[in-house]
């Protein structure tokens, strides 16, 4: 019995540490990891070839080329980028980040590279022209932005309600659809969005004027910060900086973008047209979702089965350990667990974890805890007399469990396994919060470009339903073979 208990505990520990071994603790020599937003045109956005472009992207690449260093720009979303910077996962953030006194307490900023200000945007037929008219009404904000902070600072004065979103496009659509009467946004961003076809209008003059800057953690990556400042000065002197800004913001550029958007919309307004236009991006997102699902299921199943077995070992300590682990990881929301593993653990340990590996660990712990619960329940559902009879015949606990109890318990567990596999597939969408470009995150990026929210989400919903159907059919086939 003690040997069986020890074996299960050692197996659990091996699985856990092998999974942690996925963490990327190797530092890439001379390649700086730079986080950015996913939908913040004209500063960062995916073009019609689903390649990331924008003022921030081009400027960072130009500075790196000028100063002779390499960067890997990661479009993971503003919130995820800021949290990743705080936890040491990335080296800097270039995402239209306004320089504010509060942020300067945590981050060191470069010299300002673009002037901004906060405005409110409303529907085209709205009569709102001032903050006073927002009293008692709901406004939309984007989490973590300077515009959102400004809105919250004047909320009590003007008496409006707020709703927050993780990306700009969803925030804009909330106003377009009439769910909110206005949104707070940076002036140049909203100006560009309206010029290129967004059905809103600017209702107020820019308030709380400020500047965008490139950010690193306070006291860290000072060499990178100095290189950026030097490169920015050079680019402004040789005219490259203005060329980059004009590329996205002058009248000709915005007219061309609007014309391209209108032409693309006219040519690809059907479901089939959108699918054809975005098949490459959708396929990559689908591949990432399938990869997460398969690896998540494998790791969660192994972890869950071992943890479930630990819970039925006739040893109070073992049962207590299993019950505690199941309680913790079933009790934590998947989103909270993902953020803790991706951002919290690196802050605590100093070891970097890639978003993908953090996602796998999250699925293993969360889905594995649920798996352990029904494995334990399935074993306990087998008539206790079976184990008593086996032990009375002289079979050790481990052999009786393997030969007699588990074959019966597995048949009870199979429906729960199938259900858990489907849940794992759907839960991969939550991992977009840590910047994984799976199917859901891919959809957000595409919608930010073409504003075809209904059609794109319908396409993604159909893809998920097809995946779930295939997974269910496969699981049913396995179930018939086992029961047969």
UniProtKB/TrEMBL annotation:
InterPro entries cross-referenced by the UniProt entry: AA_ABC_transptr_permease_3TM, ArtM/GltK/GlnP/TcyL/YhdX-like, Iontro_rcpt_C, MetI-like, MetI-like_sf, Solute-binding_3/MltF_N
UniProt lineage: Bacteria, Bacillati, Bacillota, Bacilli, Lactobacillales
Family: Belongs to the binding-protein-dependent transport system permease family.
Entry protein name: Glutamine abc transporter, periplasmic glutamine-binding protein
Locations listed in the record: Cell membrane
Gene Ontology MF terms in the entry: ligand-gated monoatomic ion channel activity
Organism in which the protein naturally occurs: Liquorilactobacillus ghanensis DSM 18630
Single biological process term from Gene Ontology: amino acid transport
Chief location: membrane
Signal peptide (from-to): 1-28
CDD domains: PBP2_GlnP, TM_PBP2
Keywords, comma-separated and alphabetical: Cell membrane, Membrane, Signal, Transmembrane, Transmembrane helix, Transport
One Pfam family cited in the UniProt record for this chain: SBP_bac_3
Example of a GO cellular component annotation carried by this entry: ATP-binding cassette (ABC) transporter complex
Topological type in the membrane: Multi-pass membrane protein
């Amino acid at each position: 019995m003690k040997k069986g208990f020890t074996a299960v505990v050692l197996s659990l520990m091996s699985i856990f540490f092998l999974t942690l071994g996925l963490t990327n603790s190797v530092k890439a020599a001379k390649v700086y990891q730079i986080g950015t937003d996913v939908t913040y045109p004209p500063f960062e956005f995916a073009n019609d070839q689903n390649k990331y472009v924008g003022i921030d992207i081009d400027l960072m690449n130009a500075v790196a080329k000028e100063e002779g260093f390499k960067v890997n720009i990661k479009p993971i979303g503003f919130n995820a980028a800021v949290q990743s910077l705080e936890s040491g996962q990335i080296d800097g953030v270039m995402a239209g980040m306004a320089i504010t006194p509060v942020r300067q307490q945590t981050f060191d900023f470069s010299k300002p590279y673009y002037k901004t200000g906060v405005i409110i945007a409303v529907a085209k037929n709205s009569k709102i022209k001032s903050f006073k008219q927002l009293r008692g009404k709901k406004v939309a904000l984007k989490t973590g932005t300077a515009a959102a902070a400004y809105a919250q600072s004047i909320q009590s004065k003007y008496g409006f309600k707020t709703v927050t979103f993780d990306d700009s496009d969803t925030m804009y659509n909330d106003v377009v659809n009439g769910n909110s009467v206005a949104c707070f946004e940076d002036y140049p961003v909203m100006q560009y969005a309206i010029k290129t076809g967004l059905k809103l209008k600017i209702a107020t003059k820019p308030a709380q004027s400020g500047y965008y800057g490139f950010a690193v953690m306070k006291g860290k990556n000072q060499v990178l910060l100095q290189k950026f400042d030097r490169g920015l000065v050079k680019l402004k002197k040789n005219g490259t900086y203005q060329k980059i800004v004009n590329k996205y913001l002058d009248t000709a550029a915005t007219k061309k973008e609007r014309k391209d958007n209108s032409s693309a919309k006219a040519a690809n307004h059907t479901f089939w047209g959108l699918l054809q236009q975005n098949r490459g991006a959708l396929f990559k997102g689908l591949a990432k979702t399938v990869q997460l699902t398969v690896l998540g299921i494998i790791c969660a199943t192994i972890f869950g089965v071992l943890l479930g077995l630990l819970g039925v070992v006739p040893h109070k300590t073992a049962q207590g350990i299993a019950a505690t682990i199941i309680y913790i990881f079933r009790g934590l929301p998947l989103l909270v667990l993902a953020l803790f593993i991706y951002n919290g653990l690196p802050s605590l340990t100093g070891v970097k974890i890639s978003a993908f590996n953090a996602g796998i660990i999250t699925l293993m712990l969360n889905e594995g805890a649920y798996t352990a619960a029904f494995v334990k329940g399935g074993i306990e559902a087998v008539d206790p007399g079976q184990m008593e009879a086996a032990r009375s015949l002289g079979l050790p606990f481990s052999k009786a469990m393997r030969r007699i109890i588990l074959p019966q318990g597995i048949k009870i567990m199979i429906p729960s396994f199938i259900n858990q596999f489907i849940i794992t597939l759907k839960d991969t969408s939550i991992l977009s919060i840590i910047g994984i470009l799976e199917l859901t995150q891919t959809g957000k990026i595409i919608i930010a470009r073409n504003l075809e929210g209904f059609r794109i989400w319908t396409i993604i919903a159909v893809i998920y339903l097809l995946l779930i159907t295939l997974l269910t059919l496969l699981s049913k086939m396995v179930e018939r073979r086992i029961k047969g």
